Amino acid sequence: MAHKNPSPAVDIIIEMVDRPDRPIILIERLNPPYGWAIPGGFMDYGEPAETTARREAMEEIGLAVDLVELLQVYSDPKRDARQHTVSLVYIATAKGEPTAGDDAKNAKIVNVWELPNNLCFDHDRILHDYLQLRHYGIRPRVG
Amino acid sequence: MAHKNPSPAVDIIIEMVDRPDRPIILIERLNPPYGWAIPGGFMDYGEPAETTARREAMEEIGLAVDLVELLQVYSDPKRDARQHTVSLVYIATAKGEPTAGDDAKNAKIVNVWELPNNLCFDHDRILHDYLQLRHYGIRPRVG
């Protein structure tokens, strides 16, 4: 097809349910843009989004995740400077010790009241939306 | 990029809020696969998903829609026999008279208790999920 498409990707907010207060996982990116982000990656052709989510979690932090729900889809063409990327953001749970691998240089477990600012892409906004849902039951609005 | 991606698309469940019982719109497709479906189409590069939803509704049924919420994302590689298509399904509202245009041969307004079976793609499943949310407040599960 000649039609040029945005590239679908999956990002995952992973709650560590074997710790107090369900902290989440951030990874330090090995490739540009450098900095901290939630784990994720591009969907492969022929791969359902849920499979992408489980695959990327295993590749980047070495943990099996259980998907809980879809938070929202983020598709602003400016959210990723590399190309137009449509991110499906899932909330998931995991247990154990994350180990950075593949595209992740480091992985850390962070309490939700200690999230850093200036995350990569639009992950500040995504985590803001996540906390609105987690704390107040308010789902992200669509435009 | 050499990476082959699934193609992101948007489908829209449009509730006619100027009629009793908020009936929804189905379109008869002009192109294969033939049959009835909810309106929708592929995202253009550089276009946010919400813009795709409004554009496709205007092109296919000639109505401006207000987006209410994202129902779910459907990404099973078998859901579209043409290619791997990731569908972002929005719920929206509209008023007025739909007029079939662009890829739609016909448009009709249908009560939710009179939905036909054997819609195109996985639109039977999508409308089942929609009715679970509309009638019982139960959101679609992720795999």
TrEMBL record, chains A, B:
What are the recorded GO MF terms, alphabetically?
A: hydrolase activity
Indicate the segments forming the Nudix hydrolase domain, all copies.
3-135
Where are the bilayer-spanning segments?
A: none
Q: Name one Pfam family in it.
A: NUDIX
Give yes or no: UniProt keyword Transmembrane: no
| UniProt keywords, alphabetically | Hydrolase
Give the UniProt family note: Belongs to the Nudix hydrolase family.
Report what the protein is called. Answer: NUDIX hydrolase
Source species: Phormidesmis priestleyi ULC007
